[in-house]
């Protein structure tokens, strides 16, 4: 059944650039005698030289072996004195060659380190694109950051664009000490991009709608109101389901491929990164995050509605905690249990206990996720899939096309 799911997923979502926009030349020979199933990221990665792009100081590329046996290409851009590192999962119809200049500018403007990677079957990465492979791909990139570059989990910000929101949300749901998550034009699920389905089917992919409530860190959602590939409602719903909502950025007139061209994009992103950078790492991060998010219930001056290309959360309901935290339970004045603890104390104790249990080593990524992929049982006859598959595609667009005239002026 897992094979059927992977086949359907490939038809749904993946359109790697053909031919790749860059090349690679090995700078280091493969280490002798290294088993593909090994867990040492330092041993399973080696430097490569990217060709077809302009070399820049501070840029390094590596070939990483994943737990599923493919070799992916990852690109690291270092920024002096940066305290945060962004692990960036790009959108469809892109590879590292197309993202090269954007990554360099991204690193320089918010002053962060950044690692981008190509999914299996994209760019010069080996293998074939599939949902399961992208989960293994982002795990390998994360391991490389921790084991090769010495990055702490608490200093990593996960960034997922479009299809990249799938592996980003999946990883964030398993790592409870990640500093923050940014979701750029995210999808609720692969099938929901094409159809307004009300429930999740076994053959659907990137089920962000089910995983985003499991993410414990602050989440920033960015979406264009004129997105004709992934409807704006996807970003809005993802934001509503997030546990720790940060003030979202709804860009008036922004489409699926040009949000970076709006000046408010980098301003709001820098504001978010600056805010989460001040959060303490570890157990104290959760209550401090709540203070951060509570402070964002009021729109800030830097994202006022007077700006022509921005629609902020003022047009939606303000950020709020989930309903179970909004109001304490009403107690009868006639019968009050004097020994009952307050709701606040219980919630705080529960949060601390969960935090202490949720700490996971990077070695836990060697678990077999294929079991999870096979647990979904078919709810519809396979015979009905043929017609659906033939008509499906996700983000089959050039995500780096030139912006339209109306956005160039921005």
Automatic annotation (TrEMBL):
Bias (Basic and acidic residues): 317-381
PANTHER family, sorted: ALPHA/BETA HYDROLASE DOMAIN-CONTAINING PROTEIN (PTHR12277), OS08G0487900 PROTEIN (PTHR12277:SF193)
Lineage: Eukaryota, Viridiplantae, Streptophyta, Embryophyta, Tracheophyta
Residue intervals passing through the bilayer: none
Stretches for region Disordered: 284-381
Name recorded for this polypeptide: Serine aminopeptidase S33 domain-containing protein
Domain Serine aminopeptidase S33 per the UniProt entry, residue ranges: 84-189
InterPro entries referenced in this protein's UniProt entry, alphabetically: AB_hydrolase_fold (IPR029058), Hydrolase_4 (IPR022742)
């Amino acid at each position: 059944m897992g094979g059927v799911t992977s086949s359907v997923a490939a038809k749904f979502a993946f359109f790697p650039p053909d031919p790749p926009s860059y090349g690679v030349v090995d700078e280091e020979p493969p280490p002798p005698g290294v088993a593909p199933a090994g867990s040492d990221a330092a041993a399973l990665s080696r430097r490569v030289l990217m060709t077809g792009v302009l070399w820049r100081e501070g840029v390094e590329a590596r070939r990483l072996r994943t737990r599923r046996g493919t070799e992916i290409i990852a690109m690291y851009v270092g920024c002096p004195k940066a305290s945060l590192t962004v692990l960036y999962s790009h959108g469809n119809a892109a590879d590292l060659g197309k993202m090269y200049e954007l990554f360099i500018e991204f690193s320089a403007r918010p002053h962060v380190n950044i690692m981008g990677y190509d999914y299996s079957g994209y760019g010069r990465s080996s293998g074939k694109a599939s949902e399961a492979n992208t989960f293994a791909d982002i795990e390998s990139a994360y391991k490389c950051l921790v084991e090769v570059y010495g990055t702490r989990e608490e200093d990593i910000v996960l960034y997922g664009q479009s299809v990249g929101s799938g592996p980003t949300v999946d990883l964030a749901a398993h790592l409870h000490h990640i500093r923050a998550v940014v979701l750029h034009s995210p999808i609720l699920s692969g099938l929901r991009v094409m159809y307004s389905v009300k429930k999740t089917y076994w053959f659907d992919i990137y089920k962000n709608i089910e995983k985003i409530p499991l993410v414990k860190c602050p989440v920033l959602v960015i979406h264009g109101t004129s997105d004709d590939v992934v409807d704006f409602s996807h970003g809005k719903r993802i934001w509503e389901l997030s546990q720790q909502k940060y003030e979202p950025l709804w860009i008036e007139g922004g489409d699926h491929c040009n949000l970076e061209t709006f000046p408010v994009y980098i301003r709001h992103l820098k504001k978010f990164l600056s805010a989460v950078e001040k959060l303490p790492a570890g157990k104290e991060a959760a209550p401090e995050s709540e203070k951060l998010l509570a402070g964002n219930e009021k729109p800030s001056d830097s994202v006022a509605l007077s700006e022509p290309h921005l629609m902020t959360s003022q047009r939606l309901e303000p950020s709020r905690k989930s309903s179970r935290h909004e109001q304490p339970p009403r107690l009868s004045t006639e019968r009050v249990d004097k020994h009952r603890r307050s709701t606040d104390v219980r919630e705080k104790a529960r949060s601390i206990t969960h935090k202490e249990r949720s700490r996971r080593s990077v070695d836990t990524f060697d678990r077999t996720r294929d079991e999870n992929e096979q647990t979904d049982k078919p709810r519809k006859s396979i015979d009905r899939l043929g017609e659906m598959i033939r008509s499906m595609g996700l983000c089959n667009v050039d995500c780096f096309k030139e912006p339209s005239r109306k956005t160039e002026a921005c």
